[in-house]
Write the structure tokens for this entry.
Amino acid sequence: MNRKIAIVILNWNGKHYLERFLPSVCANTPAHAEIVVGDNGSTDDSVDFMTLHYPQIRLVQTGANLGFAGGYNAVLKEVIADYYVLLNSDVEVSPDWISPIIALMESSPAIAAAQPKIRSYDDRQKFEHAGAAGGYIDLFGFPFCRGRILNVTEEDNGQYDEPSDVFWASGAALFIRSNAWAEMGGFDSDFFAHMEEIDLCWRLKNAGHRVAYCPQSVVFHVGGGTLSKTNPYKTYLNFRNNLYMLQKNLPFLSACCFLFIRLWLDLAALIHFLLEGNRKEALAISKAHFSFFRFFWKTARKRKHLSKGRGGKGIYCGSVMWDFFVRGKKKFSDLDPSSFS
């Protein structure tokens, strides 16, 4: 039986990406799947472009820039499907990229979300930073991927070609059951952008669901299409949202312990930026901490979902920073498999 699938692309001032990558999506989308473009308050001529060149594609407008999290929450309220595929506008898809993941998810009702293999668009034999072959986090909340630790990405030599459970699936190409999306209430819109998919997957796992990686599906991601890696606002969002995520999803005692440690680690990062003369990055970390404490009790109230939680299995029970910088472990395969919960 064909499930109803909706490929939903959130756009913000990305007409150049729509021009470049929509053709591959249209060419490789089966007839039973719907393509939806959600415009997140663009001020370029994205809407006119879609209306003129893709009148057959449904366009949903939010009316304002609600961020990645809020934008998808608003757009998906207007979409009816069994599966949502949240696809970045800067992704080129391959032939038959949808059916292997749907088949994997149909094989087990416990799989609520999944991602394809994500390679770099510009260096096509390498994994891409935002997702690679599936995501994990360490004890202190630092995210990494199979195929990418910090800024080191591996070449894809087939080393991650077996379907597997992962801790989080990338928002660059996120497959999720619509009923699981509704159960979780979608993304946390307070995140605005960055790490909202990690938070969502963690909540799914706390509720007893599985998150999977399917290497038989391959997409190519440009990355950094909205905020560049060196943008201080991106630094602010990453540091703030990481603290939000730990507070929301860890058991109480673990949250107290690891948040305390993370605040000191973040202070070390702030001092490092200051010593380098990078005051904007240091200020971004300071602002992130201010925002975290400002909204501490609001975030704490979101912990109610943990009452039914079964634990976020798949966390790396170590420090990926220590392993990377001190022990020289630059690849996922270098990490001790027994250190994953």
